[in-house]
Amino acid sequence: MDYSMEDTQNSAPDAQQANKLSSSGQKSDTQSVTKRLQAELMQLMLSPSPGISAFPDADGNLLSWTATITGPTETPYEGLTLKLSFAFPNNYPYSPPTVLFKTPIYHPNVDFSGRICLDILKDKWSAVYNVSSVLLSLQSLLGEPNNASPLNAQAAELWDSDQAEFKRHVLARHQDLDEE
Amino acid sequence: MLSTVPLNVGRRRVCGSVFSPASLEAHPPSDFQREQTPVISFQESTDSSSTFKADSQSTSFATIGGSTDAASPEEDTLNQARQAAREFLSVPNLGFELLYNFRNTDGSQMLKEWNRLSPPSKETAEALEYLMRTSPWTLFEWYGNDIRRHFLVNFRTGLSKLLKSLAEGLLRTIVDCLQLARRIYLAPVVHYMLPLIAPSHQGGFLAQLQRAFHTVVQYSLPWKNISPLLARELTQDAVIILGIDTLDEDFDMDRMSLDGTEMERAYSVSYKDWRQESPEAQAHMMVEGEDGRVTIARDQLLAFLNGLQLVGLGGDQAQKVFANVMNIMMGDFIRAAYTGEWESPSTAPQHLEQWIENVYARLVVQVLAIIDSDLAGTQSEAIEVSFRDVEKWRVMGIARLGKLRVSELFDVVVDWPASSGAVEDLRRFTNNSSGARLYVTHFFSINLLQRLLHPGASTVEILQVYISIIRAFHILDPKGVLLDRIARPIRRYLRDRDDTVKVIVSGLLADPATADGPTATGDNLAELAAELTKVHHHSMQNNRSELDYDDLYWMPDPVDAAPDYKKSRSVDVIDSLVSLFDSKETFVKEMQTLLADRLIQKRQNYDQEITVLELLKVRFGDSALQACEVMLKDISDSRRLDLTVRNDQILSGHRKQAGVGKLHAKILSRFFWPEFQEQEFKVPDEIIKLQKRYATCFEKRKDSRKLMWRNALGQVTVELELENHTFKDEVTTWQATVIYAFQSESSEPATRTIPELAEELEMTPPLIRSACLFWVSKRILTEVHRDTFRVLEVLPTEDDEHHAHGAGDFSDASDSEAGDTANAAAAAEAAAAAAAKESAEAAAMEKMNVHWQFIVGMLTNQGPMALNRIVMMLKIAVPGGFPFSNEELREFLSGMVSKGKLEIVNGGNYKILH
Question: Which phi and psi angles does B646 have, rounded to 5°?
């Protein structure tokens, strides 16, 4: 049975490892997750990349973050501020974080509830990725959507056919999250 | 036979209280006899007297018969005899006053007053004799009742009033009075009645009366009022007898002996005196040659207790009070005798044992012999003071001593090692009684929290006490369980202190030569350095693992050890201190910083640093201290290198055109040295030239290496030639750079301003100002105006000086030259400190910048936040915590607000602006 499982998850060998890890001592795991996230945060703070930013939520355990992406120039999203939520699993970085757009966004690879279709957040996830690489990928996804596997078919079609109309849709859908 | 008497008495008393005396008299004697019949023992006991009774009855009828009616001659005679006896015995109602007034006399006068001594008339005597022969019990019973009645009527109110007066020695007065009363009641009985009875019964009758008296006394004087009085009396005398008062007065004695009035005291219970005697003398000291005072007090006390016992206030209850007093006395004595006596070797336990045996136990035996439990005193079953009791007291005494030592323990530790005797005592205590160990640690921990682990104590102090604790507790408990328990809170506290590492490391690096001196340095733990050299080889053997199967001396952990208790066989102070920190890293890092400071200094050799490092390597292993080793190696290498480079320079003929001076360099491997906080500036061109030349030579020698000059580090020997004075000394590089800028070819003294210099030297103004003030203090420069300095080519004479001051010189107008320079020196120091502070502030600012990034990230992603929330989040998110206070952050943030990077929105929340 183990073998079959391994077969099905061949694409994500880390997941297997993660299972093993999570079974052995949840507590020490949480600690190492916290440590890792703290290191990532520190890196993010010390060498900030333009246009992206992230910070843990106030719940104190560092497992949920909020991130901000500024829309890249020369894309329909130019000048927009997009907020995302990160939820890190207990076996992070062996499993990917769950990332959602909080700001309503019109994008071929994002559905209307903010779910993202991005390979590195799914089966291509690897432990070497981190918050900042995910954010950078998402930032580039804004300018170069993957129209081969759209979540929002209309947007994918529009992106190819009518950029001006696309941008109108983007602006219509966009709505700054009021900072509460 | 004796045993039957009390039984009988008890019976009679019950009868007496049920039947009135009158009705009793009405009974014919035959009834009376019949009533007695169930008591077989009585029959037996009175058997011998019954014959006597039978024939005496007839004879007495004959004698008294003349004066009585013939109708019922027997009863009549009896009544008459009783009447006479009562008249004889009845006590006049004279009241308490009289009794009180006579309390200090021997009593005979008073007895006369009360008419108690006059012998009975012939008739009465006959009546008594008759009654004694026929029915002595009824008579005694009546008299017992009469005593009670009389006492209640006459004395009780007086006594209660007296009891309320609370006068000094009140109880003695009361006892005196009661003794008199007792004599009043019993004198006629003793003198005229008892001789008429068979000697074997006398005791019983007397006891009956006494009991009657005692009951009424106890009734009139409630015990709860008496016991404090008794305790006071007992304490008063016991203090003297046990010698506690002399201990308290020791101070006064010392003073008195100066006047020569104090006599040699052979007898003393003082521990101090005792210690000084030879062992033989010690044995006798408390046994012989008792003080006059003590003897008097003892006699007085025993007499008093005798009286107390006689009047019925002794017995069980008095014993309880006595036990209480003696309990307190033991504590008092121990406190008085041993407080502060900490010399080693300690003989306090022996002294205490001797005292208990010879002084304490003696008093107890004497007192208990008097106040035994049987008040009547007929059966003296005095409580035996067995040897086991003494043994118990001894154990108690040792426990008390231990308790005293525990309460003193903190001071003992502080005084270590002068106080090792106290620890020996304590050790006896902890070995002796179970629970004592817990008590010691518990009490001491509380003490520590109160007296040591608070912000008022400096880290050096805490560490010093901790070291003493380690040593003291090692003697107290070689297994280290107690130390383990005590040390935990201290270690936890020390970990929280920022400067702990610094103090320890600087202590290690201190010069051991100074540590050996008697003067303990206030701000330095120099003894650590001495310690390091002393015990280093122990630690090697100590580091055996738990599973050493060859260890034949293995012992299981003590039962009361904590789970993570680790055994250490020797007192390794250094190890305890170093292990304060989770990792050696913190320690090594601090070591690096301090070592760097010391190595940068210009010195002939660095032997001491090398020694310390070698010793530490033994502890930590080579790898941990690798960086430090590289640093030391750098220094020794660079000396050699310096020599080669200089030789090369000489060979290449650069030397003669140097002119500016010689340049020696220390080449540090940047990677292994800690960051230096310094202020960069431009050194004079000539120096730069030298540096370049040096660097080329160096790079020729060492391929692929580059020299980076750290201008702010190092020393310069400066020689200045001025018009009428010269100067030569070693100064810092920046001071030298500044004075070099004042060099000029012209004869006019050079004048420079601080902004000018700042631009030229690329140095911060505060640093320049500090350097200038330094030179002012050396009388090389003067400050002409604020921030403008001129070279002082000619030292001013006194007159000039005054003139200068008169001209409104900017510098402080002090009266003397010395004061002037001193002022300038102080100012220079202050300025240097200001400069240092500035650079520190810059560093702090640098740190704040990192935090600023966090704040930006936080506010960008989480929206506007209040200050408190920002601080909270920073504390969570920033590794190593957030070192600034709320106020500092508020200031920083308001700075950012004014820079337009933040704005304050509703409710004081900070919002980021893009």
Answer: -65, -40
Residues of chain B with pLDDT > 90, as a percent, come to 0
Residues B649 and B742 in one domain: yes
- Is the CB of A112 inside 8 Å of chain B's CB atoms? no
Residues B217 and B110 in one domain: yes
Question: Does residue A37 fall inside a structural domain?
Answer: yes
Task: Mark which of B198, B221, B244 sits at the end of a domain.
Answer: B221
The reply to whether B849 and B827 lie within a common domain is: no
Catalytic residue chosen out of the listed positions A63, A99, A110, A117: A117
A67 vs B: CB within 8 A: yes
What value of ipTM does the predicted structure carry? 0.76
Sequence-distant (6+) residues with CB within 8 A of B745 are none
Report how many domains make up chain B: 3
Average pLDDT of span B868-895: 80
Interface test with A, best of B847, B865, B876, B904 (most A CBs within 10 A): B876
Q: Is the dihedral of CA A118, A121, A126, A127 positive or negative?
A: positive
Write out the two tokens for B46.
């009175």
| Structural domain span for residue A138 | 29-173
For B665-704, the pLDDT digits (tens) are 788 877 778 777 666 778 888 788 888 888 888 887 777 7
d(C-alpha B361, C-alpha B401), whole Å: 17
Residue B528 lies in a domain: no
Model confidence, pTM:
0.58
Residue B719 lies in a domain: yes
The CATH number of residue B894's host domain is 1.10.10.10
- Model confidence pLDDT, tens digit, residues B13-54: 443 344 344 433 444 444 434 443 343 333 333 333 333 343
Same domain, B892 and B830: no
Residue B468 CA to residue B485 CA, distance in Å, equals 15
Count of domains forming chain A: 1
A117 is catalytic: yes
Of the listed ranges B318-322, B628-632, B791-795, the one predicted with least confidence: B791-795
**Alpha carbon of B557: minimum distance to chain A alpha carbons (Å):** 30
pLDDT tens over chain A, length 180 residues: 444 444 444 444 444 444 444 444 445 567 788 888 888 888 888 788 888 888 888 776 788 899 999 888 888 888 888 899 999 988 888 889 999 999 898 889 998 888 998 888 888 898 888 898 999 999 988 888 888 888 888 888 888 888 888 888 888 888 877 654
In one-letter notation, the amino acid at residue B730 is: E
Three-state secondary structure readout of B443-480: HHHHHHHHHCCCCCCCHHHHHHHHHHHHHHHHHHCCCC
B848 and B742 in one domain? no
In a domain, A117, yes or no: yes
The verdict on B713 and B646 lying in the same domain is yes
